[in-house]
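Is this the right way to post structure tokens for a design question? Let me know if I should format differently. Anyway, here goes:
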């Protein structure tokens, strides 16, 4: 097993060695149920799909993903264990990727445990399972994007609270940048290329595109680039902090 795998295993097991992973998964499932059945009115809609669940998922991630990401590096820096970690025969990039994958895995498990919803809509009707599968994939990629942003901001501060708030704010910007209200505000004075750039940066626009059941290569490249760029930024921040 390479060092990235060892870091991943250490981090992943660490989540379940404490109540953290269990608490996160329970909160995720409870809030998902509230959004789906009470706010989304799953049964009243009379449609065999999971729109009542997926429509609210970006907003749920907006709160829960920063909560998972805030401890990735802030805790290591605050407790001083990052110095110990960096003395091991592991590169910064291997540590960053390993820790990120462990957190992404936890969010993947939480998302996967919503499978009874998928079974329910198949029991009640004849949903388009291809669309549901694509939306699950888009949801997981979106969670990865949020976590990658949080990883970088967590590396920049020792305070988990500050990391949480900064990640929440920046993820919110990435979510709403494609909203018509935001586009209308900029359209009065901003050039067209800036409007197109804001729309392209919107994580929600790419998630919505995938949730229509069409897995476009451009959307996959967007999420891969977002995750890759923020993880590279995380490596740069950690190396800068080591030099301090």
């Amino acid at each position: 097993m390479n060092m990235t795998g060892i870091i991943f295993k250490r981090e992943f097991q660490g989540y379940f060695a404490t109540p953290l992973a269990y608490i996160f998964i329970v909160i995720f499932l409870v809030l998902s149920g509230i959004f789906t059945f009470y706010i989304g009115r799953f049964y009243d809609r009379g449609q065999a799909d999971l729109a009542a669940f997926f429509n609210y998922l970006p907003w749920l991630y907006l709160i829960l993903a920063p909560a998972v990401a805030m401890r990735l590096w802030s805790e290591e820096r605050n407790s001083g264990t990052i110095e110990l970690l960096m003395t091991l025969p592991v590169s910064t990039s291997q540590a960053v990727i390993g820790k990120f994958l462990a957190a992404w895995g936890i969010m993947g498990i939480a998302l996967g445990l919503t499978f009874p919803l998928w079974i329910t809509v198949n029991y009640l009707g004849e949903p388009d399972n291809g669309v549901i599968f694509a939306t699950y994939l888009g949801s997981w990629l979106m969670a990865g994007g949020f976590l990658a942003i949080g990883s970088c901001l967590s590396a920049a501060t020792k305070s988990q609270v500050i990391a949480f708030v900064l990640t929440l704010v920046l993820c919110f910007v990435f979510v709403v940048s494609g909203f018509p209200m935001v586009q209308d505000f900029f359209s009065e004075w901003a050039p067209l290329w800036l409007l197109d750039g804001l729309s392209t940066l919107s994580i929600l626009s790419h998630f919505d595109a995938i949730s229509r059941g069409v897995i476009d290569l451009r959307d996959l490249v967007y999420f891969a680039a977002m995750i890759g760029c923020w993880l590279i930024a995380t490596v740069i921040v950690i190396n800068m902090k080591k030099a301090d």
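Format looks fine. Someone answered above. Worth noting: Residues 48 and 120 are 9 Å apart (CA to CA). The chain has one domain: 3-241.
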